[in-house]
Amino acid sequence: MSDKRLLVVDDEPEFGELVRKVATGLGYEARATTTGHAFQIAYHELHPTHIVMDMVMPEMDGNELVLWLMEQRYAANLIIITGYSPDYAKDASVLAEFNGLRSVITLTKPIGLARLREVLSSS
């Protein structure tokens, strides 16, 4: 198992796959999921050191997943992304930080490849 393991959850499969490919190129073991339920299953299989999470998804939104991550005692790197108002990501960030998660980065779509690489390389 790699020291850098990334789990992506985004209901846009193309975006999740793009993040996965960029992360793999940076030395991550990476997996992309498209639903909250698939994310939860993959979380227990992969034991991620980094998570990239979309905020607005149909079945389970980012806030619900942040709360679930806190129940799992997740304490590593969290990158929260939204294609809607940046306030969605900021609210989830505050929720995560309030619950003890200190490494939270928020990004707004569209995200350039250079910025994505920068964030994944620095965390």
From TrEMBL:
Annotated InterPro entries: Bact_response_regulator (IPR050595), CheY-like_superfamily (IPR011006), Sig_transdc_resp-reg_receiver (IPR001789)
Keywords, in A-Z order: Phosphoprotein
Keyword Phosphoprotein: yes
One record GO biological process: phosphorelay signal transduction system
Leader sequence residues: none
Modified-residue entries (4-aspartylphosphate), positions: 54
Pfam families xrefs: Response_reg (PF00072)
Domain Response regulatory: 5-123
Source taxon at top rank: Bacteria
Name of the molecule in the record: Response regulatory domain-containing protein
Lineage: Bacteria, Pseudomonadati, Pseudomonadota, Gammaproteobacteria, Candidatus Competibacteraceae
